[in-house]
Amino acid sequence: MAEIPGRKRKRFWEHKAVVEALAIIPPIVAAVVTAMLNLRDPVKRSLGWVLIGAAAWLALASLVKVLHARAQDAAQKRSEEYEGLRGALHVLHGAVGSRVGLESRHDGKLRATIHRVLPGKGGDRGAEEVEQLLPYVGGSGGPAGRTFSVRSGITGKAVRERSIFTASRQSPDYETFLTELVRDWSYTAADARRLTPNRRSWMAVPIPGEADSVSAVVYLDSSEPDFFGTEVERVVIEVCTGIRTYIDEVY
Hints:
Blueprint: H1 16-39, H2 45-81, H3 83-100, E1 110-118, E2 129-132, E3 147-149, H4 153-161, E4 165-168, H5 174-185, H6 189-194, E5 201-208, E6 214-222, H7 230-250
Antiparallel strand pairs: 1-2, 1-6, 2-3, 4-5, 5-6
Helix pairs in contact: 1-2, 3-7
């Protein structure tokens, strides 16, 4: 059994931006001092101006490196912040799997992920998109960071109506399935063809935010039709209650 390490706070020298900043100071100082010494000598004055230009170029390039390192630090921090949600998805997948007797945790029979609701752009406009925060637990699928419109799909419906929804594919025929997605779920034909083709049932559970808003949506799907029956739905809702509590406390 793997041992759980203690909580570790990153020390200041472990941040990439700090390392880059400390590394660039000595060469910039050396270039400036050398340039100033050469500017005082009429014979070497032209060399001094060249060194001034080089020092400015070095400072600009170094600033770009520091900003890039800072962005990397921020991305890593965001990734670490979502690890608790990843653990919650594994609990959710395990709870449902135990209920229905899943033989494998990675065969795609049940997948789960979570989306955050992106705030509307400007003014009082409501949410327009959701962003997938984590890769799927339980099977392969699209990567984290993808965005989807709230105007289509079961996730969008959960955001718009602030309610839990389950659905199942009506026909095993793929072309008929695409027609369902366009007709019943407001997808464009192009977006419908980009979805995982072997999904046969879905469930979306909105996580309430402030006032009457939705802050996130837990999304599940299955390769089996009518997977989200009453008993499975009850388990999902119970676990999502814990996920909501976690989100309220952490974020």
